[in-house]
Queue: 4 jobs
Job 1
Amino acid sequence: MSPSFSWEAFHKIPVVGILRNVSPQRMQKLFAVYAEAGLTTIEVTMNSAGATEAISSLVKEFGDKLNIGAGTVCTLEDLDKALQAGAQFIVTPILKAEVITACVQSQVPVFAGAFTPSEIYSAWELGASMVKVFPAGFLGPTYIKEVLAPLNHIKLLPTGGVSQENFGDFLKAGAAGLGMGSHLLPKSLIEKEQWDQLSSHLSGFVEKYRHFEQQNK
């Protein structure tokens, strides 16, 4: 049985790293570097080549150190494949009621994609653990703040356009977590297998996050 999702680990640094189209042979080293830097939660998108095999292998090796999820889950078929592979949480780019409901029934955390206030409210009402506001970069932190004014009980995870420069603005706006892709995991460093540079990059982000946390207690 796969290790289950750890909310304790997530809350230590509530950032979901997003991996899309990273070759399976680079995943093992990447996950080791990611965990060593102090990050805790990462997803492999289901539209990446060999996603299910990669998730299965990575959960076996790193599932007790990292929360490892499946992203870009759009159908019940995707969901079934992800859960069979051992994914510890599910991320969707869209509001898909049947996927959210199935995750709730399986007691698997689901970060459901939504954009408008109505979609966000619907995803939360269906039982989403957090609502992934995507694409968040389009309207920025102000949008998060304005949505949360009437819907302050909903946990939002802005994704898309979140960077090392603006992540603090999203958190100050009320975001409960962040989804970060290439700004956190630069493709150039991964493709060139520059693991030392990636380690420094990730450690630098963790340091920035800790500094932000201390300044905003």
Note: Residues 7-210 form a domain with the TIM Barrel fold (CATH 3.20.20.70).
Job 2
Amino acid sequence: MMITNQLSIRSYSTQPVSHAHGYHQLVLPLRGVINIKVGDFNGKVAPGECVVVKAGETHLFTADQQARFVVADMQTLPDNLQHTQQIVFAINGALRRYLMFIEEQLENQINASLEQSMFTLFSLLLVEQPLLAKVDHRIAAAMAFIEQHIATSLHIKQLAEAACLSETQFKKLFKQQVNQSVMKYVTQIRMEKAQALLTHTDYPLHIIGEKVGYQTPSAFSRKFSQHFGFSPNKFKQ
């Protein structure tokens, strides 16, 4: 029998049970860490990450009873997940925040129509995932800090402190894990957010600049132009 696409909130026993099923399953921790063995992966998956169990794969989970996870049972996977060998990947901020909504909705109301719409949106968000490799927890902490403080001035020293590393260690490990320098990554996140604000809001340019960490319109315009090849004014037209 083919399973219906569905989302659920679950916890896993501390007693491991090896099993397989005829549908795909994604597990995305909300709180707590899951220990999983699937394919070539045998390790921990934490909030901000997703593990992919493809149909027919034998796998084994354990976790603390307090841990909670969004589980997606899926008939088919999006192409980006179907054709990758990556088992665990980091999820972006939009999907992380959507998981909070999924938890709130599923724990408070039964609404089959809304649940199907939630699954559809979940699937669309999966398609947008860049499938970032699972990163060291210290680098993940710095990346979360960047996202939470994108409107402020960000410096290597404070990011290294968030990662509990020396500045030299942090810069080296970040480059190894993310394949770009820390400040290039910060600029990328700022420009993506600026582009979204320009597209979806009517904030004036100086407010958008402030929301992505630039205290003067000229500084924002200069960096935006360097990144995209045209000014924010031209983009907004």
Note: Residues 137-236 form a domain with the Arc Repressor Mutant, subunit A fold (CATH 1.10.10.60).
Job 3
Amino acid sequence: MNRGFLYGDGFFETIRIIDNQIPLLAFHLQRISEAIEIYQFEPSFTIDEDFINAIKSNCEENGILRINFFRDGQGKYLPNTNEVAFDYTFTSFNLPFFVPTSLDLEADLKNAPSAKGNIALYPEPKPNVDWLTVKSLSSIFYVLAAKYKEEQLSDYLLIQNSDGNICEELVSNILLQTKEGIFTPSLKCGGVYGATLRFLLKNYGFDITEKEITIKDIESADAIYSCKGSTGLTRIK
């Protein structure tokens, strides 16, 4: 058994493949690079487009690739190396993928697919620590949150930090649309910084404002969008 299983000593990245292409590849590589630094890994191999594409060549043309990166070697809590090992899985997946393409973000948002549902708030605050801003293999916080979501018969579950600020939805970043503009929770609030949100901030940063968001902002928003690497943007309110 590896250290990822024994100690949760690692992280993972989920990557959408569409017609044998990876639309957000550059942003996935950013996330992997940042996670490697946070976890103090020292890979002896290069993790770049060629690395991802070599794995993709073993997958079907449409689906979700998950790559698990974990510290290799032995040791207990104290590892005896910072070398990196990895494995991966692939799941067929054909739901539509939507991201804006024009210069008019507000107009493009009107074309986003809709999957509206009821939204609940997880009462347990998420620790605002670096290693939980990536997709950690130590995911018990999200496992328990998912169980709470099921118990509440909710379609979506908002995660808050210890200051009561919303940092993310259970499996996605979020955008809020109001009469004042388009907003996303401040990255300083401790949410996972996903590939789709990275794409949006790079291409539409002039239209999107980061701010501290509370449940009152959620309740008064005209529209809320989920931002996921697997499906892109989806309107959930």
Note: Residues 27 and 202 are 10 Å apart (CA to CA).
Job 4
Amino acid sequence: MNILPHNISTTNDLLTSRGGLLAIATLMKKLNLSNLIDKHFIQPKSNRGFRPSVFLNSLILMQHEGGIRLDDLKYLKKDTALKKLLGMECIPQPDSVGDWLRRMGISGVKAVSSINKELCHIGLKDIKEVTLDIDASEIRSNKKEAKKTYKYNHGYMPMIGHIAEINHVIETDFRAGNTAPKAKNLEFIKKCENNLPNDVKLKKIRIDCAGYQKSIIQYCDENQIHFAIRAIMSQTLKNYINSLD
């Protein structure tokens, strides 16, 4: 066996296995996200409290790493090299983050909506007409209050609205798992539309069969919105399609 011409030695340099988070952190800095967060969220009453951006920046990085619970923050907290690289002086304890999220409540939801609208405006740039995709997305959960979804799993079934041109989530509606995917879809579409920048028009909508509703089709017709909705096939509809040939 030939000996490879490499020498192995020890080092005291800080190392991290989370180098991929650099791209996310760079984007967050480019978007000036910390200032946006601190602008819209309620500030701490004490000068010893963390700024809102400290909490949310930690959560964003944790989720991009694949974390699914607050306790996963401890892995970032222990990564000295990553914190030094990103210039993060502190990552809050999971319990502190949970307490902060509960304190924010509805005001936090409104703050996220305001931030999201500004980010959408940045992403759209010169785009003035957009396509909206809406769909329910199952989140499995072992929580006691989680209800059974139509897929027979316990969890939640939030409705999510995407702007197709920039792959941006414009609105979400957190729903119980047993909520029908077709519930209040027109109201959700209007919320998505209201979240768009003032100079941007909703031009197209795409929905699965949960959106096959008279009220949605009428709304699209009245507002000159093109739509693609998967219909629930029936003999009556099939006969009508055949009559168009």
Note: Strands lie at 129-136, 139-140, 147-148, 154-156, 159-163, 168-173, 201-207, 226-229.
